[in-house]
Structure formats: structure tokens, C-alpha cells
Specification:
The complex is a heterodimer. By secondary structure, chain A is mainly α. Chain A contains 14 helices and no strands. The radius of gyration of chain A is 21 Å and the shape is globular. Chain A starts with a helix and ends with a helix. In chain B, helix 15 packs parallel to helix 16 (about 440-455). By secondary structure, chain B is of the alpha/beta class. Chain B is about 35% helix and about 25% strand. The N and C termini of chain B lie far apart (about 65 Å). The chains are: A mainly alpha, B alpha/beta. The interface between A and B is medium-sized, with 25 and 31 residues.
Chain lengths: ~350, ~500
């Protein structure tokens, strides 16, 4: 299946998800068109709404890239959430420990520290997969919980701010705070940073031997070995990059938005990243768009509830449907050759086959 | 009386490509019809329509006088139509029995069923090991399991897609015997093949296809082979460019060339302790084609992998142009100019989801010709691929197409073209003509000869004995992981080689 048909299928899946959401809104006694209009107007065409969308899109864009790169090498990184937490922790610790550097030096170093933290957190499942044969899906997923609790411990103990009513750290110094992109709003330059990353990664995959070889491993591991690509090294490299990207998302939350390390500071951004990645059909250059779309949905949900009276949980249903339907759109006999999507497609296909066999028996 | 199978006016297009055009056929029970044609002539598409993988755009299929619509392979089985594909659909982790009974209601998985499988097996003289999993079986045995699977479901029409291309020479005769038995029992067998001698031996009639049309349905007994071949190839003359033995001799008699490849005492033991390769010693001179003959699964594939670095030998040494490369990485052997056409082009030689031009480049991606200013030059990639597509007549001639969109023969050309261009010192080819038609086989052989003539040593590993004898300067025979003999193809008989191929391992 070529890229065009795949994108068309994903678009159809999106429309279907929105339609089912529309039916729910209708059942709730409201006009779905009105509700969606309010939602999208608010998220994309209203200054404050759009600023809100951008703020939400920044971490999930990086989290999406953190899924895309490992997936292109054939590894499923579900651990974005944990990598965000550890990245945020490393960034915050650096910022609080060395508070007096000039911003131009300090901010890059905070990003490097955060990327290092995320990469470290991703290195553990990568090592276990490559050298011990464990399943990366399970290890990355479970390590999320460990990471969340490490951060909760840190901000409730060693990093707890003086007199804080709630587990959070001291503020980072003003020099380290990310510049504001839209005046009078919270919107920092995080999304622009993510956009730059998306472009760099796109070119890396397409125009450098190392990027091309990473893609090769994901598409056909045996052919990659035959082409002399070191598969173990490539998988570890892909996971380190993924962890690093997610780690930087954590840093952006800390020095861009809250200026402190909070406990539970990431609201499932790591998981949103999985949706962003698959919506983008694993193409980094499309990820900014899908991140904006997803961020827009949740940013507009609240306004929709206030303005039209539709419960915002409808939007959560739509988000869930997007995941299911996009996955379904990628599972057809024609996707069989699209091996970068195989882990997902195979899983669903196997399930479908066993169901069919059960039915026949 | 109505014929058993009546196919009228079948047509099928894929986009702008007409794969089938007004195909008509009458066939009766107890008949074996060979389907002959070049790669991409529409043989497999026709078969796929019969078993319901594709729906025809127009036309009608009648079984026993009633029109049937075969909408899926499952419906085809209900109608008694089964097909054995070139790529098997077996579950590797299951045994033969489990594979045969898969998908059946549990009531039908009785001891009786198991007994029937064994009965079928002995009826048709099929050698199947019921104690091992499919992954552990040699290819020929997997195929027999596939056929048993169809027979067990009481098919009355069985389509065999190039069934002998995976078999060892010794397996072919018993297999054909089995097919004849099927036909004698009233089965209608379609036998898709390129091999005229096999068609001659097995088929009653031959249906010759070209560019999606039926060129003729002729009785085999009274049609000369040359006539069949001419119909199949259209006007293209055959046999013109085949190197004569004399030319081969002439190439041989030039002054002694240095050794390109020397393999000394190489042993390979698998993790389970089985000895896959035992003290293999051979050498290939620059400009020489050394053939390796042998029955499938006697260590030939592993030998190619050890030489190219995909597997590491347990002991022994490998030298390329006098330099030891015994423990060099795959990448460094690639850089040393070793070309390798692996046996499994789908799983290993190609990345089907990448375009033709990316496939032409992926094993050489760091090389200067694909780079500009430290980055991959997509333009160079495209230009190089366009040239190769033209030179190798790869169809359709669009380097941007996904490799999965090409037919098997054209895919094989991609792999060959890439490796021929890469091989500066050594070319290792494994089963390069597997599943190819007469014209494509000849083309591949000529390319390999040209590489040898340019001074590259060639290791030609194949189970198609005639091809090995035809192209090689010397032939080494492998059996049970050993080289059992090296012979001169000019002065040897098939019988001698047959003996070497089945030579029992010596007890030490």
C-alpha cells in the first residue's frame, strides 16, 4: 500500500471516529455540528484556545517522535510516559543544582540532562530486549509506573519546596525559563522545538546512512543483517533517541510551563504520543500535524462542555475511537508488505484469526 | 455431457494492467493440465481467480454445469478446489498433523482423521516425518504437507504453482508419480511450471499463456516442445545467447588465475550440536564459476552464509584474495566486494515495503556512488536504478514502485542486479533461478557468466542440477554437510553426481 492510500485510510478512520462521537453527542441531546464547530473554533481559531492547544501539543509531539523512531527500527516504545518523568526529574535537578548559569548555556544543558535521563530510562528495556530477549512492550510499560513514583518521591522528599502545600520543587531560576511564543499567554517555544526535531528526524531517516539503516531494521530485520547493519546497536540507538526525545518533553514541561517539578506532572502525554505516532503513519514530518489535532481535541473539550453542554468525556471517547479505528485502518491484507506497521497489524490479525477459528469450531 | 470445469471469458485488470484477458478453458476430471508461461504471463493470476483470491472483472466459472462464484479460498475448498502456493502457508511451530487438521471442527480431528492422513501419505508415497515441527522440515517435506492438507479436504481440482522448483532432483520423480496417482483417481490437476520436460512427463494438455491471454491449449503428446516454447515466448528467439561448451572451455584454458576464495576445513555446529558443515574445503579462482550441487538442506545455504559472514563458522578459515576474513563482519565483507544473492529473496534479499530504487541501494548505501556531500543522494539512487531497470529489463520499468508490486522474476532481477554491481572479488549466488521462467533463467545465467568473465570468482549454489552443470567450470557436490566430490561438468554423468549427492556420511 503506498503512502497515499494509507493516509487516506487514516483520514477515513478519523472521520469515522468523529462521526461516532457525533452520534453520542446527538444521543446526549445536542447538535453535533454545533459542538464540533465550537470545539475546533475554540482550539484553532481563538487566540487563547490556540495557545492552549500549542501548550498541550508540545509534549505530545516529542512523545510521538519518541514512539516513531524506535518503531521505525521495529521496537515498540510504550515507555514515553516514564521517560518524560525521568527527563523532567534530571532537567529539574540540574536546573536547581546549578541555578546561576546564563540562559543560553543553562537551557541547552538542561535539555541535555533531560535527554540523558530519558535515554537512560529507555536504555534499560533496550538492553534487556537486545541482550536478554525480553519483550520491550512490557518492560517499557511497567517502567512508567516506577518513574512516576520516583518523581513523586523526589518532590515529596529531597526536592520538596519549603512550605509547599503540595508535592512540588522550588522554582527554577528565571534565566532558565523558555521564552514565550504568544504574548500574554503560557505558550512557550516548546512546539517550535518539537517541530525542528520532527524535521531533523525526517531528514535523518531519509538522507543519512545511519537513519536509512535504522529504517531497514524495522522493515526487514533479516535483510538489514544481510546488508551488514548491526541490529543490536541499531535497536539500542533507536531506543536511546526515543528516550531522549521523551526526556526533553519532560524538560519542556518543567522549564516551559510550570517552572517547577510537580508530582504527576505529565497527564498521560507519553500515551498520547503513541496515538500521535500511528496517526502520522510513523512519518516524523506528519507528527506535528497529528499532535496539533490531538491537542486541539482535548484543549477544546472543556469549552465545548461549557458552551454547548456536551460532556467533555465524549471527546475522550472520540480519542479512544481514533486509536482503535486507526489501528483497524492499518490492518488489511494490503498492509502485509508495510512491515513497519507489522507489530501492530500482526497483533490484531492474530486476534482476529483466533476469533474466527473459535467461531468455526 | 457438460465438461467438469468450464471457464468462459475471464478477464481481470489491476489498475491499468490487464492481467487476464478473455480466458476460456474446458477441462474434465482425471486430467492434468499444465499452465505454461513466462513470469507475469498471468498463470498465477488465473489460478488465484480459480481459488477465489481474486474476483474476475468478467467471465464465468462453471463446475459440473452449474455456475459457481468463488469468493474466497474457503469457498473454493467447499467447491473442492485447492491450491499449493510457491510460498507455503504452514504454521511453523506445529507438526504436520496439526497443520493438516488446522481450522477443522474438533469432531473431525479424531484418531480416524489421523489414520487417514497416514493412509493418504502411504497411498501417494509421501515421506513425511510426523514427529517434528514444520520449521524443522526440509522444503520438500513442507510441500508434501501442503499437498496432504489439500488432499485431506477432498479436493477435486488441485492447482500446483511451480511445485518442483523447491524440490531436490531426487524428489521430483516420486512427486510426479504422486501427481499421476491423483489424476488417475479422478482429480483435475493444474500444474503451473516453466519446465518443459516435466510438463511433457506429467501433463495431458498444456495451456500456454502470454501477456494475460491464452495462446493455445494443446495436447502435450503431439506438440513439439519447440512449438510450446515459441508460443510462450512470442517472437523472442531462444537459446541464442547461451554460451557454448566450447566458449566455456576457452574461458577455462586461459592462464591459471589466482584464488579469489579459499575455504579451508570449515565446520559449523548448530546450538543443538548437529554438524551442519564438516571440514568443507574448496577454492574458487578469479574468473571461475564453481558450482555447488546437492539436495536441498545439505549445508549449502549455511556454507553461503558462512562465506558472506551471516553465520560464524565453528572452526576453519576463509581467505579472500589471500587475506583472511574468517572473523570479519558482514559489513566489512560487503566492503571487500563480496556480492551475495541469498536463497530467500522475499525474506532476506529485498525489503518489499521499499521502492525498487531503494532496494537497489540498501546493501551499498554508504558507497560513494550513492552519496553526495555526506548525505544520501536520492537523485543518484534514482539514476542508478533507472539505468539498471533498463539494462535488466525490469518490469514495470518504474524505480519508484514498491518492490512488492513486482513479480517474482523481476524481484530476483533486482537482487541480482544489485549484487552483480557490488561483486568486485566474489559473487555468491544461491538458487538464482528458483521459480524463474526459461527466458529469465537464461538472462540470469548470462549475467552471472558476464561477471565471471570480468574476473570475479563465482560460487554458484543451486539444487537445479542441469543449471549447475550448464554454467559451472567445476562442480562440487555437497551431501550431509560435506563436499563429497568435485567433478568436471563436461566429463561426468548425472548418475555419478546422483551418487555423490546421496553419499552417506563416512563413519569416523
Amino acid at each position: 500500500m503506498n503512502r497515499f492510500t494509507m493516509q487516506r485510510r487514516i483520514a477515513i478512520a478519523l472521520l469515522l471516529a468523529l462521526s461516532v462521537g457525533g452520534v453520542l453527542i446527538l444521543l446526549d441531546g445536542h447538535n453535533p455540528f454545533e459542538a464540533y464547530k465550537v470545539l475546533f473554533l475554540e482550539s484553532f481559531l481563538n487566540y487563547w484556545g490556540f495557545s492552549n492547544t500549542l501548550v498541550k501539543a508540545s509534549p505530545i509531539l516529542l512523545a510521538g517522535l519518541a514512539v516513531i523512531i524506535p518503531m521505525r527500527a521495529g521496537v515498540f516504545n510504550i515507555g514515553g510516559e516514564g521517560q518524560i518523568y525521568i527527563g523532567g526529574l534530571f532537567g529539574a535537578v540540574f536546573a536547581l543544582a546549578i541555578p546561576d548559569l546564563p540562559g543560553l548555556l543553562g537551557v541547552p544543558l538542561i535539555f541535555i540532562a533531560a535527554a540523558g535521563g530519558g535515554a537512560f530510562w529507555a536504555a534499560i528495556p533496550a538492553y534487556l530486549k537486545v541482550y536478554r530477549g525480553t519483550n520491550e512492550v512490557i518492560v517499557t510499560l511497567l517502567m512508567n509506573f516506577i518513574a512516576i513514583h520516583i518523581v513523586s518521591y523526589a518532590v515529596a522528599g529531597p526536592l520538596l519546596a519549603e512550605g509547599a502545600p503540595y508535592p512540588y520543587s522550588e522554582e527554577v531560576s528565571e534565566a532558565y525559563r523558555l521564552p514565550i511564543l504568544m504574548p500574554r499567554s503560557d505558550t512557550h517555544v516548546g512546539f517550535v522545538f518539537g517541530l525542528a526535531m520532527a524535521v531533523i528526524l525526517y531528514f535523518w531517516l531519509r538522507f543519512t546512512p545511519s537513519g536509512f539503516q535504522l529504517d531497514l531494521v524495522g522493515r526487514n530485520a533479516r535483510a538489514a543483517a544481510y546488508a551488514g547493519v548491526d541490529q543490536k546497536k541499531t535497536v539500542i540507538r533507536a531506543m536511546l533517541i526515543g528516550g531522549g526525545l521523551a526526556g526533553m518533553a519532560g524538560a519542556i514541561e518543567v522549564i516551559g510551563l510550570k517552572y517547577r517539578l510537580f508530582h504527576l506532572f505529565s497527564d498521560g502525554y507519553g500515551y498520547d504520543g503513541i496515538v500521535v505516532a500511528f496517526l502520522a503513519a510513523l512519518n516524523p514530518i506528519v507528527a506535528p500535524l497529528t499532535a496539533l489535532f490531538l491537542a486541539g481535541l482535548s484543549a477544546g473539550a472543556g469549552t465545548m462542555q461549557r458552551a454547548v453542554g456536551v460532556d467533555s468525556s465524549v471527546i475522550e471517547v472520540v480519542e479512544g475511537l481514533v486509536v482503535v479505528l486507526v489501528a483497524a485502518a492499518l490492518v488489511t491484507p494490503r498492509t502485509r508488505s508495510k512491515s513497519i506497521l507489522k507489530p501492530l497489524a500482526k497483533n490484531l490479525r492474530l486476534r482476529r484469526q483466533t476469533q474466527r477459528q473459535k467461531k468455526e469450531a | 455431457m457438460d465438461p467438469f470445469l468450464k471457464v468462459t471469458g475471464i478477464g481481470k485488470s489491476f489498475g491499468a494492467v490487464r492481467a487476464l484477458h478473455n480466458v476460456n478453458l474446458l477441462a474434465s476430471k482425471g486430467e492434468c493440465i499444465a499452465i505454461l508461461g513466462e513470469n507475469g504471463a498471468g498463470k498465477t493470476t488465473f489460478a488465484s481467480v480459480l481459488i477465489g483470491l481474486y474476483q474476475p472483472d468478467n467471465g464465468e466459472i462453471k463446475l459440473g454445469g452449474t455456475p459457481v462464484s468463488v469468493t474466497s479460498p474457503a469457498r473454493a475448498i467447499e467447491h473442492g478446489i485447492g491450491m499449493i502456493h510457491q510460498h507455503f502457508s504452514l504454521v511453523g511451530a506445529m507438526t504436520a498433523e496439526e497443520n493438516i487438521l488446522i481450522g477443522l471442527p474438533s469432531t473431525k480431528r479424531s484418531a480416524e482423521a489421523r489414520a487417514r492422513i497416514r493412509q493418504l501419505c502411504s497411498d501417494f508415497d509421501f515421506n513425511v516425518d510426523f514427529d517434528i515441527r514444520v520449521t524443522e522440515m526440509p522444503v520438500g517435506m513442507k510441500q508434501r504437507v501442503e499437498i496432504l492438507k489439500a488432499l485431506f479436504r477432498d479436493v477435486s481440482i488441485l492447482i500446483l504453482d511451480e511445485p518442483t522448483s523447491v524440490l531436490a532432483p531426487t524428489e521430483v520423480a516420486p512427486f510426479l508419480k504422486g501427481v499421476r496417482k491423483l489424476v488417475a483417481n479422478g482429480c483435475l490437476v493444474f500444474f503451473i511450471s516453466h519446465k518443459l520436460d516435466e510438463i511433457r512427463e506429467i501433463a495431458d494438455r498444456v495451456m500456454i499463456m502470454r501477456h494475460g491471454r491464452v495462446e493455445g491449449v494443446l495436447p502435450v503428446a503431439t506438440t513439439p516442445m519447440a512449438h510450446m516454447s515459441a508460443l510462450m515466448m512470442g517472437e523472442k528467439p531462444t537459446g541464442e545467447t547461451v554460451e557454448t561448451p566450447k566458449a566455456k572451455k576457452a574461458r577455462n584454458d586461459t592462464s591459471p588465475a589466482p584464488d579469489a576464495l579459499v575455504v579451508s576445513d570449515v565446520c559449523l555446529t548448530d546450538p543443538g550440536g548437529a554438524e551442519i558443515l564438516q571440514d568443507v574445503t574448496l577454492s574458487v579462482k578469479a574468473g571461475e564459476i564453481l558450482g555447488i550441487a546437492g539436495i536441498d538442506g545439505n549445508g549449502q545455504t549455511e556454507l553461503s552464509e558462512v562465506i558472506t559472514g551471516l553465520k560464524r563458522q565453528t572452526s576453519g578459515a576463509i581467505h579472500l584474495n589471500g587475506t583472511e576474513i574468517s572473523s570479519a563482519s558482514i559489513a566489512s565483507r560487503i566492503a571487500d566486494g563480496i556480492g551475495f544473492v541469498p536463497e530467500d529473496r522475499h525474506a532476506e534479499g529485498l525489503v518489499l515495503s521499499l521502492s525498487v530504487e531503494e532496494n537497489m541501494a540498501f546493501r551499498s548505501i554508504g558507497e560513494d556512488r550513492f552519496m553526495s556531500g555526506g548525505l544520501i543522494s536520492r537523485r543518484a539512487m534514482h539514476e542508478i536504478a533507472s539505468d539498471v531497470v533498463a539494462a535488466f529489463d525490469i518490469r514495470p520499468p518504474d524505480p519508484k514502485l514498491n518492490a512488492s508490486a513486482l513479480s517474482g522474476g523481476n524481484q530476483q532481477k533486482i537482487v541480482l542486479a544489485r549484487e552483480v554491481a557490488r561483486a568486485r572479488n566474489l559473487l555468491v549466488v544461491v538458487q538464482p533461478t528458483k521459480g524463474l521462467d526459461v527466458g529469465a533463467t537464461e538472462f540470469v545465467q548470462n549475467q552471472i557468466r558476464a561477471v565471471a568473465q570480468s574476473g570475479v570468482g563465482v560460487l554458484y549454489i543451486s539444487t537445479e542440477l542441469e543449471h549447475v552443470l550448464d554454467i559451472s567450470d567445476r562442480v562440487a557436490v555437497m551431501a550431509f554437510g560435506r563436499i563429497t566430490g568435485v567433478v568436471d561438468p563436461e566429463n561426468t554423468t548425472l548418475q555419478d553426481i546422483g551418487l555423490l549427492m546421496t553419499a552417506a556420511p563416512e563413519e569416523e
